[in-house]
Amino acid sequence: YIDEAALDVELDKGEYACTVNFDTYRIRDNSYIGRAAAQITLYVLE
Q1: Which phi and psi (to 5°) does residue 27 adopt?
Q2: CB atoms within 10 A of CB 27
Q3: 3: Cα within 13 Å, side-chain hemisphere
Q4: Residues 6+ positions from 14 with CB-CB distance below 8 Å
Q5: Contact at 8 Å (CB) between 24 and 36?
Q6: pLDDT digits over 3-25, tens only?
Q7: Cβ 22 vs Cβ 36: under 8 Å
Q8: Cα 19 to the center of its chain, rounded Å
Q9: Measuring CA to CA, which residue among 31, 26, 29, 8 is closest to residue 18?
Q10: How confident is residue 42, by pLDDT bands cut at 50, 70 and 90?
Q11: Could you tell me which residues come within 8 angstroms of residue 21 by beta carbon, excluding any fewer than 6 positions away?
Q12: How are the residues of the chain apportioned to helix, strand and coil, as percentages rounded to the nearest 5?
């Protein structure tokens, strides 16, 4: 759950179906491990 986040573009108030990508990195040497994706609904309230 993310309560608030800045967007790159201005969107009208409403619900938006989208895909979020998570990139993972190894802490010890910052090497790239991989990516996971999930379908989410983005709610623009204001």
Answers
A1: -65, -45
A2: 6
A3: 0
A4: 43, 44
A5: yes
A6: 888 899 999 999 999 999 999 99
A7: yes
A8: 8
A9: 8
A10: very high
A11: 35, 36, 37
A12: 0, 55, 45
Torsion (CA) 7, 9, 13, 18 in degrees, nearest 10: -70
Query: 33 to each of 11, 26, 38, how far by Cα in Å?
Result: 32, 6, 17
* Domain ranges for the chain: 1-46
**Full-model pTM:** 0.65
**Residue showing tokens 């309230």:** 45
